[in-house]
Amino acid sequence: MQALPPDGKVRCKALWISDVHLGSVHSKAEQLLQLLDRVECERLYLVGDIVDVWAMQRRVHWPEAHTRVLRRILKFSRHGTEVVYIPGNHDQNFREFCGSEFGEVQIRKEVIHETGQGYRMLVTHGDELDFAVRYSRLNRFIGDIAYDLLMWVNRRINQAREALGKPYWSLAKWVKVNVSQAEAAIRAYQHAAVNLVRDRGLDGIICGHLHYPLVREIEGVLYCNDGDWVENCTALVEDHAGALHLLRGVAHPEKPLELVFADDRFPVTADPLPAQAPA
Q: What is the pLDDT of residues 190-242, one digit of tens each?
């Protein structure tokens, strides 16, 4: 990774963010604002779970930073940036408005984005691929409870780390990387994404949902997951050469609440999947 200049603008053709979960105590809205205040882009894609309606049905957590994120997005739309909002599963209430506009913001179920290098990419939140990991409605409910507990523990750990002057560490990310069942679910999801794109004759997919940022070529399909603003503080960008890569917010070594943005650009690596998704 290469750190970007701390005060410079992030100029790109397109920016994808998802899984901000405004309205949830887990949202890192302040950190997202640090990126949005530096970005200049032609298109901004909001790839679902921007507002966490599910979380707000249990408890509303809405500090001023959450309002500022929405205002900043609307400012983009009023100043020449094309803004496309694709609702996810946590803000699925807004899916009934797909095909319409809210001010200058387009609301769509999905879109096809063509990069400057000619790749035709499906842009979708990605919860429609949950079937690949055999999610029943009950499983999703139990999974949400478990995830909330995991994030509660994660928050307590990082409060202690912050008091000790140590940078942020993601327990949820550690679980996804080190627990075999979680890894198998992620691989199954990616396999389903590859099949979906191939069936539709497209070159790749850009999604969120998993909170697992990745840019990788899988069996000839470009798989891009833009990550989230709960655990990873990542966004996907298309630069002016038409290349897709991640921007990752890394805790400042001396100021844990401030982010240093690093360019995750690297050569696309092949990662062939098994013929069948893991059980």
A: 999 999 999 999 999 999 998 899 999 999 999 999 999 998 999 999 999 99
Q: What is the DSSP letter of 159?
A: H
Evaluate whether 220 touches 30 at the Cβ level (below 8 Å): no
SS3 249: strand
Q: In what order do the strands lie in the sheet with 82-85?
A: 2-3, 259-263, 244-251, 234-238, 10-17, 39-46, 82-85, 105-107, 101-102
Residues in the chain: 279
d(CA 143, CA 146): 5
- State the first-to-last Cα distance of the chain, in angstroms, to the nearest integer: 34
pTM, rounded to two decimals: 0.81
248: left (phi over 0), alpha (psi -120 to 50) or beta: beta
Contact 237, 221 (CB under 8 A): no
Tokens of 264: 């995750």
Closest CA to 36 of 6, 22, 15, 5: 15
pLDDT in tens, 19-75: 999 999 999 999 999 999 999 999 999 999 999 998 898 888 999 999 999 999 999
- Inter-axis angle of helices 29-36 and 64-78, nearest 10: 30
3-state secondary structure of 108: coil
- Phi, psi dihedral angles at 84 (to 5 degrees): -120, 125
The Cα 230–Cα 173 span in angstroms is: 11
Q: To the nearest 5 percent, what fractions of the chain are helix, strand and coil?
A: 35, 25, 40
Residue at token pair 């327990």: 171
Q: Could you tell me which residues come within 8 angstroms of residue 111 by beta carbon, excluding any fewer than 6 positions away?
A: 45, 84, 86, 123
